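Q: Hi! First time doing this. I have a protein sequence and I read that you can turn it into a structure. Is that right? Here it is:
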Amino acid sequence: MLVLVVEDEPLCAFNLTSALEEAGHSVVGPACSSGEAIVLARSRRPNVALVDIDLESEGAGIRLAQKLRAEFDMQIIFMTEHEAPARENAHYAIGMITKPFDAAAVTGILRYADERVRAGSTSPVRSCPPSFEPFEPFE
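A: Yes, that's right. Below is the predicted 3D structure, encoded as structure tokens:
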């Protein structure tokens, strides 16, 4: 899977990128700003984006998710310490990962998200991985 990582904390971005690559995913980025994320999305067309909701400023990741969904119809997974804003903007994402999280667990979350998107929101799928909250309806 081609995954866009959008995270402005260098250590978190490095750990996440390394875990995804070790699991066999191709990683675009990491991008540390909305502008960089858009440029990477336009040039590489990833399947899914992992987006920190408080990227450059409060809510910047939510605005980025809105743009990625509108322009690329990309699946978004929010990464956040602040669950309420992510839930309030659930219509832009398929779910959220609550920080702090184990970067290695994200590969399971991506498998779940991919299976869930392919199956549709009404079809049964295996149980949700820890630290991931899916949003309904899945589009």
